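Q&A log
Question type: sequence-to-structure
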Amino acid sequence: MALTPRLMKHTLYILFLLISSAAYPQLSPEVSQYYDEFKAYARAQHLNGQVTMTRDAYSRFKKICNAATNAELFALEQIADIVVREYIVKELVDRKADELSELFAKFVNDDVVQVQTADEVIDWSLAIELYEAVAYQKVKLERRKYYEKTTDKSLLTDVKQLFGPEYETLWNSSEVDSLLLKFDAVAFSNDDVAPQVLNYIYRQKEFKVGNYNRVRYFATKYPTGEILATLANFKNPNDLPILQKNFNHAFLAVAKFPHPSFLPELKKRINTCFENSEFQEAVSSYANADSRIMLDTICKKIAATYSDDAVRNEKLFSLYSIMERQNYAFYRPVLAKIDSMLN
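Response status: OK
Response body:
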């Protein structure tokens, strides 16, 4: 029997699905087809190797998600390009999938890359993305709680439509906290965890964690600003040599543990570091006569360095905020000076 054009097209489509199924045995023919279409699109648009999607790319990715089970998404995560893996991770979190702890353990040693955003360069890894995606569920919970408390019920539908997937979550607060504690345990018990992952977690926890011995271990291995600050929060005098050895990375640490031995080191760096917000915070943490003189000097240096009023005022206001937060009453004379310069 001769094949008509319509029958030939149908036959080729079946062959395509069979080939796709053979190529991805863990995926259904439909998911395989959508994934192949996405890969072809990604190649054409030069998306491979990137960590963000365009709106059109994301809509194509959602076709995969809408057809895929959790098991298929986990299977895809193992073979897909990095841009797809990131969005799969977020999709699995939104679904509150099982085995997220195992996924975090898999990512925690991965290389971290630096990504240029609109405003800054950030550290990026799938471990950080996964941790952030789980923590973000509490942001959704707080948002929903706020609008359900403050918005008329007749308008809640409009609010939900406005935020879309940013409004609803399957998680509750205790489930988020419990999983993040598991992530913490995985990271803190791993000698080879990427230091940027520790930096991210310690910042999320405002540099306050338990298990002093592990923090000290990481501080000697990876003396980053965040890890040193976390160590400094224990305020153990035995750690002073570690902080002094890595002083150029220890401004955050000094702000947590303003030991008298650090003050001369801060004074040495005032001409080169006066604009550094972490340096300013370290100085202001002392709240003594020396620190007030240093902050007054910083104020004068900023004023003398910038002729552009907008830039100067922005930097002075930042300094003002740091001093106000640390000790408003003690720094009132310097704050008054900044007030007069801003007005």
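Response note: The radius of gyration is 26 Å.
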